[in-house]
Amino acid sequence: MYKILLVDDDEFSADIIRHSLRRFDLSIKYVNNGIVASEIVRRETFDLIISDVMMPEMDGFTFLEGAGPHIGDTPVIILTALDKVDCTKKLEQIHQISVSSFMMKPITKLSLMSRIARALSLQELSLVAI
Description:
The chain has helices spanning 11-21, 34-43, 60-71, 84-92, 109-119, 124-128, and strands spanning 2-7, 26-31, 48-52, 76-80, 99-104. The protein has a single domain (2-128), classed as Rossmann fold (3-Layer(aba) Sandwich). 45% of the residues lie in helices and 22% in strands. With 130 residues, it is an alpha/beta fold. The chain contains six helices and five strands; from the N terminus they run βαβαβαβαβαα. Pfam families: Response_reg. Residues 3-120 form the Response regulatory domain.
């Protein structure tokens, strides 16, 4: 079973993602801010991190920057309503993070499954079939 950390302050979006992933062999831990996520990655390891960028208290960039030493080579999918160019510029400042994919909100189930499959090196059909 793959462990995924989902960090998003928008509970509606998080519920859609969790519901979409529930039927697959994936364990999802959901937190609604970067502060809690930072604490969790110090204690637990994950196969994938999906993080929103714009969150109160601690944004996704700050979370990823601070968590970098604890994340290591864990793939990261960024969810954002920001322009990809702006996100790329910001992430260039965070050298230790390897972002697997950017997803512009609103996201679709099919594109999410495809990105997760790619990040986890899974056969896409195993996630997209149902």
